[in-house]
Amino acid sequence: MKAAELKGLSVDELKQKEADFRKELFNLRFQLAKGELENNQRVRQVRKDIARVLTLIVEKEQSSKAAKRRANNA
Questions:
Q1: Chain segment 17-45, per-residue pLDDT in tens
Q2: Number of domains composing the chain
Q3: Which of 13, 45, 63, 65 is the most buried (most CB within 10 A)?
Q4: Residue 1 resides in a domain
């Protein structure tokens, strides 16, 4: 999933995406251990998607905190 697609989502939606990706990663690892996984690259791709989502969550939370600080100082 591209970062541009994720940027439009809210923090709650991003957290839901993270949970979905973690479930998918669990299933992929399980398939890998059983020798059933055909596309090993998908594990790597999902791990990067999780990192993208976590990065965006942190960015959005930091920007909202900064906006609150600016509002309190004004």
A1: 999 999 999 999 999 999 999 999 999 99
A2: 1
A3: 45
A4: no
